[in-house]
Amino acid sequence: MPKPQVTQSDTSLQIPIGAQFGYCPQCGAPGQTRERRLYGNDKCGNGHIYPSGEAISIRAK
Ligand SMILES: [Zn+2]
Q1: Per-residue pLDDT reduced to its tens digit, 28-58
Q2: How far is the CA of 33 from the centre of ligand 1 (A)?
Q3: Domain map of the chain by residue range?
Q4: 12 CA distance to ligand 1 centroid (A)?
Q5: Any residues with CB less than 8 A from the CB of 16 and at least 6 apart, and which?
Q6: Are strands 31-34 and 41-44 parallel, antiparallel or unpaired?
Q7: Could you tell me the distance, in angstroms and rounded to a whole number, from the CA of residue 48 to the centre of ligand 1?
Q8: How far is the CA of 45 from the centre of ligand 1 (A)?
Q9: Distance CA 31, CA 13 (A)
């Protein structure tokens, strides 16, 4: 039985951890959860809750 080939293209399926919800505007931590509704809130890894529209989409240094 030939083994299925594993290629580098598999990595394209992965979402970069910490980037999918943007970053907390208060502390800069990656968003952990996002409410799936209009005008929902995001929550960062440090427990801050903020509107999804205020999430920072680029990493602040
Ligand atoms: Zn935060």
Answers
A1: 999 999 999 999 999 999 999 999 999 998 6
A2: 12
A3: 20-54
A4: 28
A5: none
A6: antiparallel
A7: 4
A8: 6
A9: 20
